[in-house]
Amino acid sequence: MTATTTSTYDVALIGGGHNALTCAAYLARAGLRVIVLEANDVIGGAAVTETFAPGFRNSVASYTVSLLNPKVIRDLELGRHGLRIVERPVANFWPIDAARGLLMPYGLAKRQQAIAQFSARDAERLPAYDAALEKAADVLRDLVLRTPPNVGGGIAELVKGAGLARRLRGLDVESWRLITDLFTKSAADFLDQWFESEIVKAAFAFDGIVGAYASPHTPGTAYVLLHHCFGEVNGKPGVWGHAVGGMGAISDAIAASAQSAGAEIRTQARVTTLRMTSGWVSGVVLESGEEIRARAVASGIGPKLLFRSIVPETAIKPELRARFLRIKTGSGTFRMNVALSELPDFTCRPGTNQQDHHGAGIVIGPTIDYLDRAYLDARQEGWSREPVVEMLIPSTLDDSLAPPGQHVASLFVQHVAPQLPTPRTWANACEKERFADLVIDTVTTHAPNFKASVIARQVLSPLDLETRFGLVDGDIFHGQLSLDQLFATRPVLGHAAARARIPAAASPAHPATTPRARSFAISNRSGGGRSRMGG
Ligand SMILES: Cc1cc2nc3c(=O)[nH]c(=O)nc-3n(C[C@H](O)[C@H](O)[C@H](O)COP(=O)(O)OP(=O)(O)OC[C@H]3O[C@@H](n4cnc5c(N)ncnc54)[C@H](O)[C@@H]3O)c2cc1C
């Protein structure tokens, strides 16, 4: 049965992840009539909180905050809509062996002290390294708020490109050297220029491999490192924090902001295709058969999924469609939540009483070789015998997540093949449970009470991330952050403005809230007319 909504929206948004919600909030505030259509029962996409065991709830996928743009927090008044972000007491903790660990606090002097235990020279180099990264991060902070110029896009794009060139003209040669290094080198090569200690290099290199499914020796990982450093929490650059109530609290606050501006949000509303009228896009069609009329459609799902499953094949040139389908996806990550009867008792920092390191991002990956080996193993075997694990225990910062005295931990594992070597498959539950056991054993190597303290667990393989959130190949970024898929080439060259065909003024705002993913406006024409898919 086909039903058509009687009213026409200005914009229908596919997906109710936090980026689509942000887009909806801005559009509604600009006076447009918008509707958000989310396939799942709940909004938020990968930024969602859930009860995964009786009495225990946690962020299901995305788990820590720094890249949520402060401009978005301000513009959408997320504080007024219930968002509260608390900072970790210390940044990170790297257990090394039974006796040694690196606890990285905040503040230059304290970080130098921590690093000096491993290398006095590295501690001395830290201020210059920080300054260099901060300089590059400043450029990036500015760039993520600009729509990249569209190659082949005519005069308007040239002007945009010129504006960008003006911004970059102020950089001196040293800055250009730094930026070139960061955009072309591997994290390992970049860090070799600065530091000598294995643990110090590994500590910084970890940011370069998160979600990259790449060795720290792979060119381009230096950029991923920078990408994970340019955020901030509560006005403090480089700090990571926790959204009270879990990441779902961010999505809820954005949704509340959007709704207060008049946006409609529907769940259990899977979009199956575009509504086409005489070759023009005129809305979307839901799985139920219902048709939603809209002057423009914006997508909050990954571009590869959009062109693979929503945009009719005939509505776009085959070469362009093929390009979208070739976007590289697969960040090689595996995600678990565990309910804990007590805090981990690390051999190198004993005690189950809450200490600073329990509130840190706890990373198992003590050398560049370890990070590299994990990647090489995963390419061959599907996962590493010694996986790279990051653990956060958000209940140390937020008592709404677990019963008193008990805890929840997020485990985020790098270098897990998006597809296992055939005939093995993630669809086989035994595979993911086997790997989940290995992850728990890995933490237990450093904190012997860990395994016995696990009361319940939630396990998400790359396939689960795809099935549950629509992340193709489990890609946490909606497409790898490789050099060929960044800025003007993201999602594909010629469509960096996140539109399939760029019309005049009244089109949806570019909705990047975190630069990890980006919505894609697939049709629009000023003056309220219908638009044609093109390319
Ligand atoms: C395991 C994991 C860990 C991460 N960790 C962090 C982190 O700690 N910090 C951080 O900043 N970022 C993290 N990220 C990245 C961050 O979560 C993503 O960048 C962000 O969620 C992307 O948001 P989005 O709104 O663009 O899309 P998504 O969150 O992917 O949302 C897309 C939405 O579209 C819906 N949808 C899909 N198809 C349809 C359809 N046909 N019709 C209707 N709806 C549809 C989906 O159900 C989903 O709700 C992580 C991601 C993952 C997966």
Looking at the overall shape, the CATH architecture of the domain at 3-47 and 65-84 and 247-327 and 484-532 is 3-Layer(bba) Sandwich
Bound molecules: flavin-adenine dinucleotide
Poorly predicted segments = 502-518, 523-535
Classification by helices and strands: alpha+beta
Main beta sheet strand tally, sense and closure: 8 strands, mixed
The fraction of residues assigned to DSSP E strands is 15-25%
- CATH-wise, what's the superfamily of the domain at 3-47 and 65-84 and 247-327 and 484-532? FAD/NAD(P)-binding domain
Q: For the residues shown, what is the average pLDDT?
A: 89
Roughly how many Å is the radius of gyration? 23 Å
How much helical structure, as a percent, in the residues?
A: 25-40%
CATH class of the domain at 3-47 and 65-84 and 247-327 and 484-532: Alpha Beta
Count of strand segments: 21
What is the CATH topology assignment of the domain at 3-47 and 65-84 and 247-327 and 484-532? FAD/NAD(P)-binding domain
Number of helices: 16
What's the shape? globular
